[in-house]
Structure formats: C-alpha cells, structure tokens
Amino acid sequence: MDDKVITAKDLTKTFGKFTAVDHITFDVKQGEIFGFLGANGAGKTTAIKMLTGILSSTSGEAKVAGYDINTQRNKLKKNIGYMSQKFSLYEDLTLKENINFYGGIYGLSKKQIVTKTGEMIERLDLQHIENTMISEIPLGWKQKIAFSVAILHHPKIVFLDEPTSGVDPITRRQFWNLIYEAAEDGITVFVTTHYMDEAEYCDRISMMVEGRIEAMGSLKELLERYDAKDMDEVFLKLAR
Amino acid sequence: MQRIIYIVQKEFKQIFRNKMMKPLLFVMPFVQLGVLSYTADFTVKNIRIYIQDQDNSPLSAKLTNKIEASDNFILESVGFNYENGFREIEKNKIDVILSIPEHFSRDFSSNRNTSLFITADAINSTKAGISINYLQNIIHDFQTEQAASKGIIELKPGVNIIKRDWYNPDLNYKFFMVPGILVLLVTMLALYLSGMNIVREKEIGTIEQLNVTPIMKYQFIIGKLLPFLIIGLVEFTIGLLIAKFWFHVPILGSIGLLYVFTFVYLILVLGIGMFISTITNTQQQALFLAWFFSVIFILMSGLFTPIESMPEWAQKLTFLNPIKYYVEVIRLVMLKGSSFSSIKVNFAVITLSAILINMLAIRNYKKTA
Predict the structure, then answer these.
(1) ipTM of this model?
(2) Gap between the Cα atoms of A165 and A192, Å rounded
(3) Number of structural domains found in chain A
(4) How crowded is residue B55: how many other Cβ atoms within 10 Å of its Cβ?
(5) Which of A13, B104, B256, B294 has the fewest Cβ atoms surrounding its Cβ within 10 A?
(6) Within this chain, do residues B266 and B214 fall inside the same structural domain, yes or no?
C-alpha cells in the first residue's frame, strides 16, 4: 500500500485568528493527477506551500514523497518540482540560461543539463527562441516553459499552483497535454485551479471551501453525489 | 559547490545585463572619486579680507602686500574706516578684517608694544579659526623678516617653534582625502548592491521558486555575495590606480595587506547588505535602510571630521562603525606604510564582525515562512 506519495492528516494553518487551512486530510497516489479545486482564497495556495516545505504547518502532519514536511524539508525538496502562480523564471536570462540555472540548482550534471535542455527544446518546439530573453516570450509559452523547468530534474511529484491562470483556452489545453505527458512519465501531479472545467482533466478532485476539504473523489463520483451536470454546479452547491 | 557556481554565473549575467548597472559600477564611482577629491578640501582658500590701515606707512603697506601675495587671501579693499569693513561682513562680501592701528610703524620700529586687531565672520567657526590662524602665521613671518632686516635675530626672547609635518610634508589634503573617499565608494557600492539584491528576487517572486529547491541557505548567501566581492575588488583596484597615478597619492605600505583587509571588509559590508535584504520586503525599504546606515557610518567615520573632536558618547559609537576601521587602515597603510602589527586590532574587529553579520544574514534568510 505504499503507492501513496502524499499523505496529509489534519493539516492546519492559522494566521492569528484566521484559519487558512482547516484540518485537511487526504492521500495522493503515485502517478495520479490530483486536482485541488476551490475559489480564490479557499486556502489552496497555503496548503501547497505547506506541502512544498516553504511554510510551516500549525498542526497536523503530512508526508510528501515519504518525507515529513516539517522535519525533512531538504530531502523533500530534492524530490518535488514546483511552479507557482507568480511567474518564476528570470526575465533577464534567456530560455537556455534559465534551464541551465535551475538544472544546476537541482544538482544535475553538466551532461544531464545539456541532454535535458535539448530534449525539452525539441519537445516544445522552441528552437527558434532558445536564446531569447524570457521577458520577450509570450505568457502562454512562458507557462509551458516554467512547467518543463519545474520537472527538469524528474521529481516524484510536481506541484502546480494555478498554472493556467491568465492564459487563453488553447494554451490551457496544450498545457494540460504537457501535464498528461508528465503523468505518463510517472510524475505525480498536484494541481490547484479555480477553473472548474479543468476538473475533468484530473483523476481525482478535492474541493476546498473556506479552508476545509468539502468533497473528494473522481469527477464522476462527485457529479453523482451532488446530482450535478458539471463541476460549476457542484461548486455552487458546496459553497452555499 | 556546484550550486554556488551556478548562482554566481546567473548573478553576473543579470548584473551585466542590467542597463543601469554598467554606468553605476564603472562610471559613477570614479566620477565621484574625481569630483569629491577635488572638492572635499579642508584648506581654506579665497578668504576675502579688508584691511583697515590707520597707519598708512611703508611698513603697513609691506604687510598689506604680504597678505595680498598669499594664496589664501583675496584682498578686497583697503580703507581707513572700520565700519566700512564691518558693513561688508554683514553683506557677506568680506570674511576677515585686519585693523592696523595708528603709529604701527613707529611703535614697531622702536620695539614698543603694538597690537593688530582681527575681526572674523565666525558663522562658519572652522573657517574663521583657520583664517585667523593663517593671518597670524603671515604676521609672524612678517615680524621675523622685519626683525631680520634690522639685524636682530630674535625678535623677543621666547620659544621659537620649528615645525615639520611628517608623512604628508606638503600638507597635501588630497593625500589624506583620496584614500578615504575610495573607502566610501567601495563601501557604498557594496552595501547598496547587496542590499537590493535578495529583496529584488522577493519582489519579482523568483525567491519562492528558489525556496522550493534543495539549495542550502549558506550556498544561496555565498552565491549572492561572491559576484559583488569580485566587483568590489575590481572597483578598489581601479580606484587605487587612480589614486596612485592621477592624484599621486603615495602607497608606502604593502599593497597585499591593503587587499587582504579590503577583502575581509567587503565581506562584512556585503553581509550587512544581505542582512538588510533579508529583513526587508521591497527594494525601497532596503534602499532606505542602506541609506540610513551609510549616512551615519560616513559622518561618524572620521573621514570628513576627526573622531577625536566628537563628544565622548559619539566616539564610543564609532567603535561600531566599519568605515572608521577601514579609513584608519587605508590611511595608515598608504600614507604611513604601517605594517600588519599596527592594524591588527582593526583587522580582528572587521573579521569578527564579518563572520557575525554573515551568520546573521544566513540565519535570517528564511526559506520557510
């Protein structure tokens, strides 16, 4: 039964009197695409920050890739990738230089970096902009590049925090194709979004409302349970 | 180690791609070194003087000529009336009045007591003091010359002072100021650049991405610090060359010693900058803090005003001032040729502080909120 790469039990974060994340308990299985849905301010980002080891939890416990989120952060960080809603590549470095930098930080060898860079540029068809400054590349492309950089070191899990906010539907579709490819490669994907229609791309979904997980299951299960025709309706029923 | 190299590479690329950076690094400091060294001049020149000559004798004319011939004074006018001169002081047209009394020539020649009266505008008390001092020197010279021409060796019994200024025999203020200003430039550059650096990553959001990587805190700080250390040493080298070949400041001591000290000192200043960067959230805040510290450090460094003339409590505060230690060392080593044993206290203080502040910066850089 050790195919669970994330286990969280009663994970809680309070800021003063405000409880951002309220006793959430869930598991994520190896190779799964786990959707973390919720409105803006529901606590998704806070949860993801705790799971990636950049925010201490107030109470409860969680293990990611087998490592405790509060006591084994460094080992944990070697095994995860992360892409935040804020854009995370350096605007004043070229595409190649960004890949090179993050590859180096994750401890890849020079040879590995060269191979992986080549692969990635080919896969995304970026030959013509490989030496272009990131600041001159359109947003949709940047998101795809940022995702690819986040999984450059082939982590066990990749955390994506609102990766598709602000990009057009076509690019979103392409972005999800990249996510599928990563999942096929064996990378578990933990993705937050407030686009309810993106739920259909996920194997399992958890619905967060005001810091709590109100519902969890596959899309089909949720639609049946709440007698809804799509996730929007589920969301509205839960949020009420 | 590998990670540190990757950070250093990235920092250098970013520094040299920033359009503002190149002029900031390679033009501004040396313009400042040039301009400040010529302007931060403590010799008082162009003192405007009015001579009230009530004697109107060949002797008083000789004295007037001697003053006029001096580099420090500009003889604005000569007159009989004291009030005329004083009105000019009120209008800020004159700095000093020298009053030569009636019968000056007669009394002087017959070795009787006679007094010259000096009035100085003391709004700037330092300038007034120096002006009076110059004037006294001229008058003393004049007295000696006159006495000699009359065949009297010693004018009056007393102590004759012969002075010799060691280490800077020409009293060239540039020798004193240029090394100090060099310190200032190296310090400011290092402090501001490092202070703005980490906080910049906070502002653009990349710090979060770095925080989820397995990078260690010390690797991060060292990687950030190294590029500026190298830049700081390059700046110091260029500054030193300008000091030597443009201002002809003598470098009597060991250049190696200067570099070793500068190296440690830069680590300290960069550490302060890093520390500022870790406790602030925006570049504005960081800039303000860096500015606050640099102004206090500079004014209390002994660079522009001697520490010995500060009040007791302020003198004690200067023990916390890194610039003070560096200014002392660079002046001692360059102008006096002092060896390590004369600067070992400064060296110890700076080394310890450098270790301490960098440990603080590393501790304070939070990968986890």
Answers:
(1) 0.87
(2) 10
(3) 1
(4) 22
(5) B256
(6) yes
